Amino acid sequence: MNEVTKNWVRKFALDYPCELTSVREAGRQSREELHAAGLAEQELDHWELVLAEAGNNAVYYALEGQKHKPVRFEFYVDDQWVEARIRDQGPGFEMPEEVELPEPDSEHGRGLFLIKTLTDEAAYWRGKGENWLVLRKRRPERETPASEASGPPASAADAALTEQLAQSESTLELMTEELASAYESLSTIFRYSAELAEQPQPEEFARKWLVEVCKIGAADWFVLRLVNENEALKLVVSSVDLTGREVLDMENAGEADVSLEIRAASLRMDVWFDGTLQRVAAVDPLVSVTGQGTGFAHPIVINDRLVGVLSVGRYLADKPFQAGQVSIIQTFGDFLGIQIRNAHFQKQQVQTQLTARDLKIAADIQRSLLPKTLPVLPGYQLVGHYQSARQVGGDFYDAFETPGGKVLMAIADVMGKGVSAAMFAAIFRSQLRAEAERERSPAALLTMLNRALFADLDQVEMFITAQLVLFNPQDRSIVISAAGHPPMLLAGNDGRSQEVEQSGLPLGVLGDSVYTERTVLLPAGGNLLLFTDGLTEARDPEGQLLWLSPLEKCLSQGAKAGRGAEETKAALIAIVEAHEQGIPAGDDQTFLLLAERRTGAKNLNPPKQA
Amino acid sequence: MRTEKNGATLLVTDLPTLTSDNSRAFKDFVRGALAPEHLTVEVDLRNTRSVDSNGLGALISIHKTICVRGGKVRLLHPSPLIEEMFHILQLDQLFEIIPRPL
Predict the structure, then answer these.
(1) How far is it, in rounded angstroms, from Cα B84 to Cα A321?
(2) C-beta of residue A296 within 8 angstroms of C-beta of residue A310
(3) For a disulfide at A132, which of A125, A304, A394, B8, Cβ 3.0-4.6 Å?
(4) Under 8 Å CB-to-CB from A294, ≥6 apart: which residues?
(5) Residues A459, A508: contact at Cβ < 8 Å?
């Protein structure tokens, strides 16, 4: 049933508004046209009745939102057949093999019976938003004038055979078209599947294959959009220039003059367009870019969830798509949408797995950096605290004895997260430990560390804030040097506290930075606190920062009350937790606390687990 | 569309078409004209060019209304095409059809 395979003598088409009152006029016009094509009166009577029934159904069952499209009658006539195609915009139906009459007193259900009875062949090609009822009726045999007759008259058996052959040919044509359509879809999908596995970029792949599908479907252009994380339609690939209109917001989907793509997404059904859509040209990317051609926007829905919209079209309005072409494009569009979505999903899964693996490695490195034990100093207690944020950061602390009985305490915060931050922390720690063997001053160590790490840090645009403190328990002296790090806090048993700040650029900012240091004394019965900014920048549910004061107050109260380091550590942690009220920390929280024991107190503590 | 009342018969005439666009009006019009004494509805189809399945539905509806009171619908002088349609749909068993004179 195809005008390509048949040599039709006459073709014509009629469009009429999707209204019942127009059906009769359409039938009358069709009759005139068919009369001009040479049909006999009885043929005309039957066709008028058939077209009235088909036309009524097309109007009755047209979907809301599709009624602006005309119902179309197309006719193909030759000496042997008349074929009528009636396009509707309804949900479609399955054409039954046999139609039974309803009960005699039923007021409905006779239209299809009439159609099937008065025609010789009836098929229904379903599309989304557009269907075609295709009807064929054999024309009565003309009386052949004697002058036209050639050869001996055919016998009755010959005539029956001829009739049978004609019917078989017709059936084969119908089957061939259906199979060709299915074959095109299937073969395209198989080829697509085979290549998808080797193609790392689904978007480029989609472009390549949409070009091919457009060739199969005889379309001039395509636009594929997928729903993004903001529930907007984002352009993925397109054969037309949609610069500046890459993303379509679906919030306005309920308004009348929104784009065809949004309407298709909103209605979850194909939206067709043709040259009658001038009014939306100003706001509709498709119409403004492709002009007044014909085509449709096809929503891609998977498991009742909108995935995207594939739009295809032709530049000429008088060349509508055929049902078989529409079917191929729709089928492939659905398949393509699923594949791209799966590819994105796989990509996300791989990324999530990589991130999780990265974080685990980083966490392992981070844990390995923390000292297993801290130095034990007569008359002093040293404790550390490290609380990682959800994403492992680059905080770490260290403390170890240096030649001369001194203790070097270090605290650092590597800007960044994950493995890279942890790696720099590890390098920082190993270099620090190696260089400290030679009893360098904190400032000299920072200068050396900056020179050693600058090239690598600069290359990845990272930096490290750090603070080094060399404590001599013999004379209570504290030598401090810092690289862009928060101040050190000191508190004495007189209840007073002080911030000790030493300026210096973070490591990795300038290659030739020279760091300075200063010396202060630990107050009597004093506490010393080194910390990272994750502690002072802890946030409450309203987003307010903790700042320094509560920590300073806690430290001085602890010193005044003669509390041990563990007790003060617990108090500091409690202050931070009370401030956060259960809100997860946004950054690592790290501190190192040295507390002087009260005179006479015995050193009962074994080396502490940090 | 007009009606004439003749005893127990209600005659409906002037019906150029009986199709989807006027079948409901036809049904309402006839029902409105039916009086208790009417036992037969005659629909004159001699000038009716086309009837479709919606028009048939309207006739069947009238048929059911009049049957309740033991009456019937008689179709007068339909065109060969319309008569053929009634025959195809086996409605010639439901309605009394008076053929068009030769």
Answers:
(1) 38
(2) no
(3) A125
(4) A272, A273, A274, A275, A313, A314, A316, A317, A318, A319, A320, A321
(5) no
Which residue on chain A is closest to B27 by alpha carbon?
A107
What kind of architecture, by CATH, is found in domain A10-142?
2-Layer Sandwich (3.30)
pLDDT for the residue numbered A286:
78
For the four alpha carbons of A436, A438, A441 and A445, in that order, the dihedral sign comes to: negative
Interval A25-36 mean pLDDT: 88
For residue B59, the surrounding DSSP H or E stretch is helix B53-68
| Residue-range domains of chain B with CATH | 2-98 (3.30.750.24)
Answer yes or no: do A105 and B94 touch at CB < 8 A: yes
* CATH code 3.60.40.10 region(s) in chain A: 370-596
CATH code that applies to domain A195-346: 3.30.450.40
Its ipTM equals 0.89
Phi, psi of A255 (to 5 degrees): -80, 160
Contacts of A101 in chain B (CB under 8 A): 89-90
Pick the residue with more confidence: A457 or A125? A457
**Bridge partners (DSSP) listed for residue A408:** A400, A470
Which positions of chain B have pLDDT values less than 70? none
Mutate: best of B52, B82, B96, partner A, most A CBs <10 A: B52
Rounded to whole angstroms, the Cα distance separating B2 from B14 reads 6
Beta strands in A140-273 (DSSP E): 221-227, 233-238, 247-248, 271-273
Considering Cα of A400, then A402, then A408, then A410, what sign does the dihedral take? negative
- To the nearest whole Å, the CA of B50 is away from the closest chain A CA by 8
Q: Please give the average per-residue pLDDT across A325-348, as a whole number.
A: 77
Of A360 and A392, more confident: A360
Q: Which backbone phi and psi does B16 adopt, to 5 degrees? A: -60, -35
Give pLDDT, residue A230. 82
- Residue of A19, A49, A114 to mutate when probing chain B, most B C-beta within 10 A: A49
Beta-strand runs (E) in A17-97: 71-77, 81-88
User: Which residues lie below 8 Å from residue B22, measured CB to CB, with a gap of 6+?
Assistant: B1, B55
Which positions ≥6 away from B89 have C-beta within 8 Å?
A: A101, A110, A113, A114, B56
Residues paired with residue A382 on neighbouring β-strands, in sequence order: A594
Contacts of A52 in chain B (CB under 8 A): 19-20, 50, 52
**Facing residues of A271 across strands?**
A297
Distance from CA of B61 to the nearest CA of A (A): 6
Give the domain A370-596 fold. Phosphatase 2c; domain 1 (3.60.40)
**Domain ranges in chain A with CATH number 3.30.565.10:** 10-142
Q: pLDDT at position A63, please?
A: 78
- CB within 8 Å of A82: residues ≥ 6 apart: A34, A37, A39, A43, A47, A75, A76, A136, A137, A139
A contact test, residue of B17, B18, B19, B20 with most A CBs within 10 A: B20
